[in-house]
Design goal:
The chain is built from three helices and three strands, in the order αααβββ. With about 80 residues, the chain is α+β, with helices and mostly antiparallel strands. It has a single domain, classed as Alpha-Beta Complex (Ribosomal Protein L22, Chain A), CATH 3.90.470. β1 and β2 form a beta hairpin. The N and C termini lie far apart (about 25 Å).
Length: about 80
């Protein structure tokens, strides 16, 4: 949770705290992967603060980034692998 608290949005940290401990690591990596996908799509890398946008929610597997036309979706992969588009 230390990494999430330092880099994720307050909403994402709240979702991770509500996630059961057995599912928290998977949720963390899903969030991280979605954030990477968003930053790469924007082409600005870490010039955008990771905490300035939210990609993880309790509403489902997709995340709509406010004020953009982007929808970030997780992709089911094998155990230990994550992907987002």
């Amino acid at each position: 949770m230390q990494i999430a608290e330092g880099y994720f949005s307050a909403a994402e940290v709240a979702v991770l705290r509500q996630t059961s401990p057995s599912e928290r690591i998977e949720a963390f990596y899903s969030c991280w992967t979605r954030k990477e996908a968003y930053l790469k799509a924007r082409g600005q890398g870490l010039m955008i603060a990771l905490s300035s946008f939210t990609v993880l929610s309790t509403s489902g597997p997709e995340s709509c980034i406010p004020k953009t036309a982007m929808l970030i979706c997780g992709i089911s992969m094998t155990f230990r692998h994550r992907a987002a588009t």
